[in-house]
Amino acid sequence: MQIIKTVEELKKIRKELKGTVGFVPTMGALHDGHISLIKEARANNDFVIVSIFVNPTQFLKGEDLSTYPRKEEADIKICQMCKVDFLFMPNINSIYEDDEVLIKAPQNSYVLEGLTRPGHFDGVLQVVLKLFNLTQATNAYFGKKDAQQLALIQQMVKNLFLSVNIIPCDIVRENSGLALSSRNVYLSVEQKEEALKISKSIYMAGNLIAKGERNSKIIKDKIYEVLENLDVEYIKVVDKKFNEIDVIEPSNTIILVVVRFGKVRLLDNIWM
Length: 272
Fold this sequence. Notes:
Layout: E1 2-4, H1 7-16, E2 21-26, H2 32-44, E3 47-52, H3 72-81, E4 86-88, H4 92-95, H5 113-116, H6 120-135, E5 139-143, H7 147-159, E6 165-169, H8 189-210, H9 216-226, E7 231-238, E8 254-261, E9 264-271
Parallel strand pairs: 1-4, 2-3, 2-5, 3-4, 5-6
Antiparallel strand pairs: 7-8, 8-9
Helix pairs in contact: 6-7, 8-9
């Protein structure tokens, strides 16, 4: 595996690659969810590029940019074990200049995650577009846990006529059911136990829908019952364009749940 630190080096190497390129963008602190994306890329491409870059433009003032988990040595070992060909680990000055052409997320980004984190998706799309241009990936791999982010990246690819294929990958969970996240390390033992109610609630919702329930309000009320006494930021039932829906549409519905534990926000969802 080759570690690349500069944009110039990555561009030079990319010009020499002949064959398909799978790309997995990350912010590091790699866990089994990231590993599943890398393995998918490894199985379906001639070359695999992973990036590790804690992107400052997607953090709002007061968020955890300075304390976001950084595990460079462990991340390098994980990428080596997963047979990554190239690990791109740039510094901020390599990616951003003082005066930048900005990417503006569409209006539908200012709901759900974008409502509570205005401007977050502008930063996400800005860095992802840069990384797509640098890697010239054939396929790029994203988890379904960040469902709204995934949809916006797909929209950007479509609107800007990018040639990369976006490959959505299923959520990876701990044996307990908790969706994997780099921020899980912030949770105390007690909070982690309480957080299990999140996956329990969406599994319950999935079972109700499988039995024929189609009323979104009933589904949300049942989820709130399971999450009673937790700091629920929102529970939404949306179609795959992220419009809220009153009636669940099989194959076109996502149920999204966000719960806070102190400063930690945990996202989870189920795609129906």
